[in-house]
Amino acid sequence: MALSRLDNLYRQVILDHSSHPHHHGILDASTNQIELNNPTCGDVIQIQLVVEQDTVKDIRFSGSGCSISTASASMMTDAVIGKTSEEALALVDDFSKLVLGEELTNPDALGDAQMLSGVAKFPARIKCATLGWKALEKALTEGNQTELNSHLHCD
């Protein structure tokens, strides 16, 4: 019975992030920007960041995607604001491990995103859940790219 309540709580948090995404929209000025799409399902995301002194000061995302993709991107933005680039990239790695069903030493660092661990049971949804995180990784590692389109190809 308690597990059912916990599952319901997780579903509610995911639905809330999907229906009312945090940090959704466009930044007036950004230091890093990327667009990434998943041609398998049609999800598209644009990530804009303001990185100052190697710290994520602000982040926004826009685009169109399923509820898992949108909720995950919303959770990701909450998790990385105020983090250094290195810390944000470590969170990307941790999230990838989480949705692949691997154990994490500190899942709480992911904030609400840890609630997406159940995606591991649905391999077709992993690409949806990781799209925003992969876009963040590319935006941080490829620097000041203002017009960069990329495809996420997952085998």
UniProtKB/TrEMBL annotation:
Biological source species: Carnobacterium divergens DSM 20623
Classification via CDD domains: IscU_like
Domain NIF system FeS cluster assembly NifU N-terminal, residue spans: 10-128
GO biological process, one term: iron-sulfur cluster assembly
Similarity section: Belongs to the NifU family.
Molecular-function annotations in GO: iron ion binding; iron-sulfur cluster binding
Annotated InterPro entries: NIF_FeS_clus_asmbl_NifU_N
Pfam families, alphabetized: NifU_N
Name of this protein: Iron-sulfur cluster assembly scaffold protein
